[in-house]
Amino acid sequence: MDEHRERLDKRLTPIHLFKLTPGTSCGECGLPTCLAFATQVIVGQADIDACPHLDREATEPFRVRLVEQQRAGIGVKREGFEKALSFLRREAAGCDFRQLAASLGARYAEIEGTPALRLVYLGKSLVATPFDVYWEEGEGISPWEKILVYNYLIGGAVRPSGRWIGMESLPNSVSKVKSLKAHCEGRLARCFSGKMDLLADAASRIGAHRVMEQGEPNLAVEIQVLPRLAVRLLVWDEEPSEQFEARVKFLFDSRVLETLDLESLLFCCEQITERLSSFVGEHEHSHCHS
Ligand code: SF4
User: Fold this and answer.
1) Probe target for ligand 1 pocket from 16, 18, 21, with the most ligand atoms within 8 Å of CB
2) Cys-Cys with 146: which of 86, 133, 170, 197 at CB 3.0–4.6 Å?
3) Whose CA is nearest to atom 7 of ligand 1?
4) pTM of the model
5) CATH number corresponding to 3-71
6) Strand-by-strand arrangement of the 247-253 sheet
7) pLDDT tens, 188-238?
8) Which CATH number is associated with domain 164-288?
9) What is the pLDDT of residue 216?
10) Which of 16, 18, 37 to mutate to test the pocket of ligand 1 (most atoms within 8 A of CB)?
């Protein structure tokens, strides 16, 4: 079965979420029925937290899968992405690609008379033109990845300060910090607990290199997301004898928001989490979501 078909067959539908609601259609979420609520959440038009009657613990695995699904663009109303992309394409058309190339760490090229930038995103080469963003080789770039690259290109990269901080130290980040913990840091900790060698190997495969960090983590790596944008990942492994569970922390340069917005930054961390988790064996993969 092809990969795309397999993903579609596994996708979450409104019925999956409907089964988690009490089915009382009380209207407190602002929608007339529980099924209407479930449908709006799946297509990305309503927030799952709008229903106060959902059991947070029981719905957590659903939430994680829903975020992954929406990031991949499955089920989400295309208009949202398309609107954002056509706005960004217009903005990109007004940029001088040749001049921007050096500051973004990209290479300028002209492809069939169209200005283009070649750059590396999480170890993979891609091409950005005012009309589209695509991989140098292969297919399957998601709309979110295109939006991320255009944001990077239009916003322009700033020189990092060299001072590393947690997301909680960035302004207006409270809700994003929660998502980062639930979907990235917590997931990686569960996935790689007791498997530091595997994590180090997975990180090196996406182009990360080891760094020195305070706090004596078992592993500290720097991951190059885009040419002028790196994040750090610190990992403390489990210590069963001391009842200490594995812990993971993402760090960002203190000037990162001058290059990318918080939403894009969270997306980068989710992509890193996805890539790293994909190196865990099939039979162990369920730990990553539990
Ligand atoms: S608030 Fe929850 S229970 Fe009430 S209608 Fe909305 S989804 Fe159903």
Assistant:
1) 21
2) 133
3) 34
4) 0.69
5) 1.10.15.40
6) 164-165, 247-253, 229-236, 219-226, 209-210
7) 999 999 999 999 999 998 889 999 878 789 999 999 999 999 999 999 998
8) 3.30.310
9) 86
10) 37
